[in-house]
Amino acid sequence: MKLFTIGDSISQGFMSMAAARTELSYSTLIAKCMGLVPGTDDYSIPMWGAGGLPFNIENLMRSLQRKYGNDIRGPIEWLAAVSSVHGFLDDIEDYYERGQGNIALPQAGRRHFYPNVSVAGFTVADAWIVTPRLCVDRIAMDQQKNGGDGLFFSLPNSRFERTAHAVLNPSRDPRFDDFSQLRWLEHHHVEGEGVENLILWLGANNALGTIVRMDMKSTADAGKSPLDMGLDERNMFNLWTTEHFEAEYEELMERVHDILSKGKRDCKVFVGTVPAVTIAPLARGVGNSRLADDPFNVVKGKATYFDRYTYFLFDHDYARRSGNSLTFEQAHEIDSTIAEYNKIIKRIVAAYNKKGKDTEGAKVEYYIVDICDQLLRLAFKRNHGKPTYDLPQELIDLNKHLGRTVDTVYYTVDRMGRMSAGGVFSLDGVHPTAIGHGLIAQEFLAAFKKAKVPMVRELDWNGIAASDSLYTNPISMMDELYDNTRLAEMLLDLLRLP
Known about the structure:
Layout: E1 4-7, H1 9-12, E2 14-15, E3 18-19, H2 26-33, E4 53-54, H3 57-68, H4 74-97, H5 126-129, H6 132-146, H7 159-168, H8 181-191, E5 197-201, H9 209-213, H10 231-234, H11 242-261, E6 267-272, E7 283-292, E8 303-311, H12 316-322, E9 326-327, H13 328-357, E10 364-369, H14 371-378, H15 393-402, E11 412-413, E12 419-421, H16 434-450, H17 461-467, H18 469-472, H19 478-483, H20 485-495
Parallel strand pairs: 1-5, 5-6, 6-10
Antiparallel strand pairs: 2-3, 3-4, 7-8, 8-9, 11-12
Helix pairs in contact: 2-16, 3-4, 6-7, 8-11, 11-13
């Protein structure tokens, strides 16, 4: 097997709040560069029905735009729009709970597996904790506990478990009920033909919940290690202490190295660093700006922070009134913690590279891919509006020709369909667009080339841009989100659903 990927939502191709576009993910782009053909037995990928799980914000916005144009006018149209949203979500719920996407029906092709087993929401330890059997049990318990639909705006229940089950056992074959991400790695590398190149990128979800919930719940308050907790207890926290993160990452690397050392062939492992979650445009800085030391030592001089951080569509008054916000001190602490995560990752990887030289059996080499550094150099506000990351010339040319942008500001389009900001992050404000995935793929490919992994082609930037519908076909109804708090709060309620 030329390429195997273990990761979380970004590696899965999660976009605009949905596990939907694995064919556009950075790992699929890398597979193409290696000469693999996605969507075939050569490199099988999941195809998500009903726009993806749990729901696709882009599809929702385009659906509303088709019905109401670029402006929802008056109370009567608003009642109709609310009903349209309900119908849109109800169709998704039906598809994944009772329709073709339910956990009883096989999804994969003849090979019974995917070479990319990344799952949205996975923390480091989920790589060996979460199995299809666990997912089925938890889905059944959730159904017993919550009964029917209940809420007016309802989504498929147990979304984390349904997504994980779809990836970890797409054939629904009982033989794979206990296959975690690492068990699949063992299956392919030790029992199968062997894995030549492994992408390993986990850790973001050990901190990301802080900005998704606009709240900090540190494992420092847990009284015990997260490794000693069940899944429900682990889900109560959204920021691992550096000590707890190091314990999980050390165990991950020990398990991975043990598997790869027993394989039939040598393996090169490309380890991604944890992104600075506070630069994602889901979190909007409000109030006064302030300069502070950059915990990552990437920004030249001082980095720009703000008094508070709240959701991207709201202002300082909302942050204070609702309590849905992080203070400057909390944001800086989150960044400082992630900076320490990445030091831990680099230190552990260096130790295993040294250990690998002294280990008998298959040769294992590790390479750091510093995505955190890349995204910090791309960050617009953090760099005082002057990002230091150099975009590919093809993108620069396309931006000039089409009047588009590629930056980390939240996607901004007026009622005439003119795009003035965004391009890197999708509509959920956290996950990359197709172009964002291209930029991540570029960073990984630089490491692949350094490791002398053979490629048959370069990234096709024209093709990547053409596949990015937010870029090629801007949504003119986006202005309704910026101007109308009712639609914005409706979307926020959906984003914050457990």
